[in-house]
Amino acid sequence: HGTSRINEFGHLEIGGVDTVQLAKQYGTPLFVYDMALIKQRAKQFQDAFIDEGVPYQVAYASKAFSCLAMFQLASELGLSLDVVSGGELYTAIKANVPMGRIHFHGNNKSISELEMAVEAKIGCVVVDNFYELEQLSRICLEKETKMNVLLRITPGVEAHTHDYISTGQEDSKFGFDLESGQAAEAIERALKAEKIELLGIHSHIGSQIFETTGFVMAVEKIYQYINQWRENYQYVPKVLNLGGGFGIRYTEEDAPLPVGNYIKEMIRVVKEKSAESNMDLPEIWIEPGRSLVGDAGTTLYSIGSSKELPAIRHYLSVDGGMSDNLRPALYQAKYEAVLANRAAEQTEEVYSIAGKCCESGDMLIWDLPLPKANHEDILAVFCTGAYGYSMANNYNRIPRPAVVFVEEGDAYVVIERESYADLIRLDKPLVSVVKQ
Ligand code: LLP
């Protein structure tokens, strides 16, 4: 997919760059991002809105993968940015992203994070709860600054997805509940707050979604309430943010729709419901993370040791694992992979790919067909662009990998490999903390 192909040496090439060369030059594990594919995905989302002539914003959910270069690329592509912490906001500020295009999410933004957002004059805060609304309103008064706000509601729609990552159902830590009247109360309070400009409503129903049904149900549910709010408070949202969650194809078990299909269906139902209620069409905002960067990312590993249990299993270990990709251990997530240096060869063995972390759960891929492999080989695991590097950690004091962007034959390091010195940068030797 994307610009991936097998070159004349039988090597996997991405963005016109030989991945075997990349592994040699930058070491492994290495994240490689296909810039052209990120651009293509962004355009697919944007075109779907443009085709329908609907005012929109596509905000990149940066939790999927963030760094200065990614933020710069996102803003060059005309994407807005969804940040969920002071750290992501700080990175966006340092990347010189236009502040007006930043949306701030989270179920427990701290006072200092809210202050940072107000001072930076970001585009909007997606308010999650009453405490936040109160604090934000107070901070805005103090700083004599107005802030645009979306209220996050839980539409009571559970997307077909893994339990840990579904957030749309009623029993969720996120957002204002619709049915119990919480959302109505939030609207009433937000409308009264002097420095709060209530732009609209936000809903996110989950992640890795393969159908449009959940989005349609969420919109239908929201409009039932919009009708009530209009009656009770003469309030009609100008913006409807329907969140992210568009699925991608990790393995052949996954069958996502083309991104345009999700958008067209969303627009169709929003148009239909607005017409029924005799309301102006709101702006439609979305915030894809995974579907913008997921399949653009590939991780290169070096194969090291192996262990064969005759007739049972053949383990191959790589030089990374749950430290750079937590998803298999956390969600039983599945991936596909090839040997980057022998990408054209027939598969003749079945291996289970183990990470190097000291626990049995650190398995990246079970039962992977590959050519006969050995410790000279480079394994390329596909679709690691979302929630791979961003959930990477230093378990076992393994340094985090480097990240390169590739395009048209060039490679750019966008995050350096962590060094051993980096690992102890914040450590204090015992002598400095214990009284002599
Ligand atoms: N908007 C909100 C409010 C979200 O909570 C999320 C993801 C997104 C947008 C972007 O969702 P996406 O388009 O990337 O599916 N670590 C998990 C995924 C957690 C998703 C959390 N929220 C994983 O690796 O599968």
What would you note in describing this structure?
- Its cofactor is pyridoxal 5'-phosphate.
- Belongs to the Orn/Lys/Arg decarboxylase class-II family. LysA subfamily.
- The protein has 436 residues and is an alpha/beta fold.
- The protein folds into two domains: 5-33 and 296-423, Lyase, Ornithine Decarboxylase, Chain A, domain 1 (Beta Barrel), CATH 2.40.37.10; 54-293, Alpha-Beta Barrel (TIM Barrel), CATH 3.20.20.10.
- The chain has helices spanning 19-26, 35-52, 68-76, 86-94, 111-120, 130-142, 182-192, 213-233, 259-276, 290-293, 327-331, 420-423, 430-433, and strands spanning 5-6, 12-14, 17-18, 30-34, 56-61, 80-83, 102-104, 124-127, 147-154, 176-177, 196-202, 239-241, 283-286, 297-309, 313-318, 337-339, 349-354, 363-370, 378-382, 402-407, 410-415.
- The strands form three sheets. Strands 4, 14, 15, 16, 17, 18, 19, 20 and 21 form a nine-stranded mixed beta sheet that branches. An eight-stranded parallel barrel has the order 5-6-7-8-9-11-12-13, surrounded by five helices. The chain has a three-stranded antiparallel beta sheet with strand order 1-2-3.
- Strand 5 (56-61), helix 3 and strand 6 (80-83) form a beta-alpha-beta unit.
- The protein is globular, with a radius of gyration of 23 Å.
- Residues 162-166 have low confidence and may be disordered.
- The chain binds ligand LLP.
